[in-house]
Amino acid sequence: MTDRKINIDSIHIDNARKMSQLTQKSRIPARPGQSMTTNLTQKWSSSPKVAHHVSVPALSTKTSTSSHNSCSNPQCDHCGSVIVPAPVATLPLTDAPSISIGNWEVFTTRKPILNSQDTEQLEKTLGFPIPEMTFGHNKVQVFKLSEDRSIEWSIDFNAIDALKMVRKNVDPSELLQVSYAQDWVNARQHRKGDEIMEIFRPFDWSYTSDYKGTITSEVPMTIDNSKAIPTSKLQTGSILFFNDMILFEDELGDNGISLLNIKIRVMKDCLLILQRLFLRVDNVIFRVYDTRVYIDFEKLEVIREFKRLEASYQEIRLQINVGTGDPRALMRDTAWVADHCKEVFKEREYVQLSG
């Protein structure tokens, strides 16, 4: 059997070459205003010229009348790729929700931690290093307005007033001690190289504070332990407003944690504020200082309850059973620790406001 010789006409070769060029050309994004089928005979070995000054068309401010599938983002004048605009930064973030019920107004503010300049100024004012994370602009405010809309009574919770009540200029022997507490205190001094720029006087490095809120009123609160917060009333009705925020937090040089946070919930006829200071010094002690403020909008009465709860580190560890859960997680759970600490002090205050 003789081999059959196959002849390929030159026109077939030329058509195949054009088809190959068209296929390769379709894989390259088209430049603005350039057709995909133009310049098919251009050699692919030649590199496109790069423009030194690229002008990107601005986004139109007019409302587009094209279909929802059209893209209004600009294209690169060189390669034709779509340019996706970068997101616009809106920091620093500010969260300030509020609610008004009758003559009562509630304001909350949440912002980032203090910057270095504010931190330095606050430390000069207080006379000791502030916690690592101090939310100095966070606050919860409640106002009772009179008929002429002036402030008749108010209470304010904020980190700066809480830190002002931290003990300072105290005998170091009266403070909580851990194995390297003094090393941690020394590390918090302001230094420039080996030169100590400023030495802080001894202070309560656990940031324990009896802060119960800042009240502004001509009518003082009186101690009345017979007044109890009506917990049954708080369990009924829907919550109209809620917020939860941290005022300050410090890990005490990896010796534990000192955390001050606050929660508020507002219902139709009352509100409740819970501020909790949670302190854990590893292998030493647990402390939970709770401040609850109950306000009845209808009866115009305010009850403030302050409690100190304490337990040694070993006492809490012994209450953790095998089936209770992760010991480390439980010792970070402020609610669980509070339920297992002993109450060492409790005081209630009361005030009746005018209508």
From TrEMBL:
InterPro entries: Phosphatase_reg/MetRdx (IPR051330), TIP41-like (IPR007303). It comes from the Eukaryota. Residues 34-47 have a biased composition (Polar residues). GO terms for biological process: negative regulation of TORC1 signaling; TOR signaling. Residues 21-47 are annotated as: Disordered. One of its GO terms (cellular component) is cytosol. It holds the Pfam family TIP41. Belongs to the TIP41 family. This is Protein that interacts physically and genetically with Tap42p, which regulates protein phosphatase 2. It comes from Komagataella phaffii (strain GS115 / ATCC 20864). The lineage of its organism: Eukaryota, Fungi, Dikarya, Ascomycota, Saccharomycotina.
